[in-house]
Amino acid sequence: MAGIRPSQAYLALDMTDTAPLASLATDLTGGRTSGLRFLDDAGTLAIVLDVTGLAEPERKPLEEKLRDALLARDEVTSVRVAMTAEKKALTIVAVGSGKGGVGKSTLAANLAVALHRRGVKVGLVDADIYGPSLPRLMDSEGTKPEAQGSKLVPVPNAYGVPMLSTGQIAAPGQAIAWRGPMAGKALEQLVDARWGAVDTLVVDLPPGTGDVQLTMIQRHKPAGAVIVSTPQDLALIDAARAISLFEQADVPIIGLVENMAGYACPHCGGVSDPFGRGGAEAAAGEMGIAFLGRVPLAIGIRLASDGGVPPAAGTDPAGEPFHAVAAKVADWLDARKAR
């Protein structure tokens, strides 16, 4: 070994013995490396780094940390890191309704926030192409998503739920007058984005049973669907149509939520039921699907939502109904994974 420069010490080593380097790489990356080998006698090292599940800001620092540690070894003169990532299948929870005006978007936003607070790596898609309201509900109006290559990067927010919506792309108040194929393409861009560590998407569908719902089912089949309805018969008739669409496409119904169920007078405390009560729960029983809970018609929910503060993000009692629904959805998702 006398007279050999440290940077060339590899010449006196058995170059097939890469076990120490592989062990170092494994320890540094938590087992994310493979395929370590020398490419030549000059000490050029190649290694594969699996970055599946890591967000974009996490990948580069891990690569640099690995590269620096390997370059610190005398036998290594340069390092070529090939980063790979499996395209993981996202678990999609569709939130739908048979008609508009039943509080579907409010439920979708709070469901996503509540799931996040339970530890679910969740993202939110506003697929209500023609009437996007999630930017207001999630306090992200005026923030446009960036693009990396051909894919959009979801917009972060204060509630830990990255989100994409056509409402973040179109000008405020601008009418979105797209025909079916255009709307389907927009949905594709929103769902097939750079979601990073997210593994579950809550997708707020437009009301009804039209092109966007069909595109979702055909291209990004949901793992299950949550149906939102108010208690009155007219809303339940349309909710049954939405349930029928998902059942025909073999999309499981996670359950039915009764929204705007009961109004407590802020002055006398008396509770009235302007839209009726128990209709959705009774309908769920008749159709043999789960009843996920009811959300009251409360001024606190309305004020918080208009202010871009989902009630599920705080500790106010207004958020409790959403957490109760999220607990049942989380249990359903856990049971699905266990099958």
From TrEMBL:
Statement: the UniProt record of this protein carries the keyword Lyase: no
GO MF term list: 4 iron, 4 sulfur cluster binding; ATP binding; ATP hydrolysis activity; ATP-dependent FeS chaperone activity; metal ion binding
Source organism, top-level taxon: Bacteria
InterPro entries tied to this protein: Mrp/NBP35_ATP-bd, NUBPL-like, P-loop_NTPase, YlxH/NBP35
Keyword ATP-binding: yes
UniProt keywords, alphabetically: ATP-binding, Hydrolase, Iron, Iron-sulfur, Metal-binding, Nucleotide-binding
GO biological process assignments: iron-sulfur cluster assembly
Pfam families the UniProt entry points to: ParA
Residue numbers binding ATP: G98, K99, G100, G101, V102, G103, K104, S105
Similarity comment text for this entry: Belongs to the Mrp/NBP35 ATP-binding proteins family.
Subunit structure: Homodimer.
Record function comment: Binds and transfers iron-sulfur (Fe-S) clusters to target apoproteins. Can hydrolyze ATP.
Protein name, entry field: Iron-sulfur cluster carrier protein
UniProt source species: Sphingopyxis panaciterrulae
